[in-house]
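call fold(seq) -> tokens
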Amino acid sequence: MRLKNLVLAAMLAASSLVAVPSLAAAKDLLVVDFIAEPSSLDPHVQWNTDSFNVYRNIFDNLLTRDDKGEIAPQIATEWKYLSDTEVEFKIRSDVKFHDGKPLTAEDVAFSVKRITDKAFASPQIGQFNQISDAVAKDATTVILTTKGPYPVLLAQLTKLSIVPKHVVEAVTKDEFNLNPVGSGPYKFEKWNRGVEVIVARNDDYWGKKGVFPKVAFRAVPDGSTRIANLQAGATDLASNMNNDLAAQIEGSGGSKVLPVRGERLAFFSLNVNKPPLNDKRVRLAIAHAIDKQGIVEGILGGFDAPLDELTSPVSFGYVEGIKAPEFNPEKAKEILAEVGESAKTEFSLLTTPTYDQRVVQAIQQMLTDVGLNVTIQSTDMGNWMQQMQSGPETIPASSFGRWSCGCQDADGTLYPLLHSSSSWSNIKDERIDKALDEARATIDPAKRLALYKTVHEIVAEENYIIPLYQASVIYGAAKDVEFSPLPNENLFLNRIGWSGK
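ret:
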């Protein structure tokens, strides 16, 4: 109980304080352990956590969010609406890429057009496809045009990394991935495949500089190894801690737990085109079979919170009062008995070691207990991402996933997961498409919220995807590390300090 109280106190502190890097002399090399290495260092190619937490520091975004979660300037210093569909951005004039070339409005326009180019096939295109044009008016002015009023534009632009046009056009996509050139607070130095990515501080950075001369992002899949590294002083910051690992950290006395409940949500995705999941009754039985509270309390130690909708409370679009089917395994058995033999059709459950396998195995057992036939299939994160965005006919029958758009807006979750035009979605529901499209086209917050309520209610009725819980972000850290985790899970190196105590 004492540990849980300490953890909850730490959560509140992490979500309310703003980290101010210490002026004390920092160590020469900050070591950060992730579960896996990046899938890509090209910011327009991939956006899983292990990738963007590295490349966010190599590249600047057009906008950013401050430690309070508010949209703030980055490459753009100011912006104004010229009309409902045109926004003018003023670009900093003192930014240089790591090769010394200046960043201009042309690079911004190029970056927008690159990530929205259907031929480029960025997995992020669904979050930027409402932008119809980007024009550099002059060296420091860019005008973005949207297909209609687009209220999520600024939130999405906090994730738009600016790439150098002169470099990207001169090399292949693979070459840029292996030697990325950005304008961020850290420069890419080397990538030892399967081991680590090294970045070096950009001493010419236009903004707040990092306190660490170099940072190593290491791939350490095993949680106990991440703990051992932390306790031995070989690691300074370790991600993807679960409650058991957090308890070990608290018990050691030599390091600390840094948690925050974020915008990321866990879900159980169902491909409604594949039997037996194409039967609405089977999906309802699955919803009744999964004990969300049991998972949160019994497995995750209370760090996380059960969810009845596909939006977390820290994001716009979360609606109070949505009720998904309650945990009722007996009801699930009754429904499956009514369905008959077809309910016993075997189906796969895709996962990846990046996710907590205790949760995946618990879901499998819960479904088995009510009479379903589920087989777990595990793959690496890159392949999981590839399969999950492969289209309705080839997306796996079911999967455990965790989703964060980094934008703290329901559009960034609901549109890619549910809209029929998205490569991530296997769902074709005109009601959902209509509501999501309208929510993207109105700037009235009250109307948007009403539309998202409609979507949440349909999902709760049809059980296309089963929302599970609002995930917490838990880091283990050396005592000298000064860092407050953000709900959007971004790890900005120049916001991390070192006490030197």
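Residues 1-24 have pLDDT under 50 and may be disordered.
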